[in-house]
């Protein structure tokens, strides 16, 4: 999801790099989800939820490009 107030950038990477980035994003999302679960009702949860949402959006974008590249 592109936010109108944020600039977008184009990046050129190899297919191997794309796979590595996608894998890293998946690991990061998983770790952040576990952290959110551990925190419960902490005051920092809102910030982490926003970070998790951004990370998931990025992961989705990279995965869609990876799927397209593999077809």
In short:
With 71 residues, the protein is mainly α.
Strand content: under 5%
**Low-pLDDT runs:** none
Query: What is the domain tally?
Result: 1
SSE string, helix = H, strand = E?
HH
What's the Cα radius of gyration? Answer: 14 Å
Specify the helix fraction band. over 70%
| Distance N to C terminus | 23 Å
Count of individual beta strands: 0
Assembly type of the chains comes to single chain
Shape: globular
Helix/strand class = mainly alpha
Task: Report the total helices.
Answer: 2
Could you describe the largest sheet, including whether it forms a barrel?
Answer: none
pLDDT average, as an integer?
88
Task: Describe the protein in words.
This protein has 71 residues and is mostly helical. It has one domain (15-70). 72% of the residues lie in helices and 0% in strands. The protein has helices spanning 15-39, 45-70.
Give the helices and strands, then pairings.
Blueprint: H1 15-39, H2 45-70
Helix pairs in contact: 1-2
């Amino acid at each position: 999801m592109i936010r109108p107030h944020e600039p977008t950038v184009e990046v050129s990477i190899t297919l191997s790099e794309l796979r590595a980035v996608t894998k890293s994003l998946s690991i990061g999302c998983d770790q952040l989800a576990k952290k959110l679960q551990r925190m419960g009702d902490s005051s920092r949860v809102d910030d982490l939820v926003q970070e998790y949402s951004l990370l998931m959006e990025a992961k989705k974008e990279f995965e869609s490009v990876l799927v397209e590249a593999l077809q």
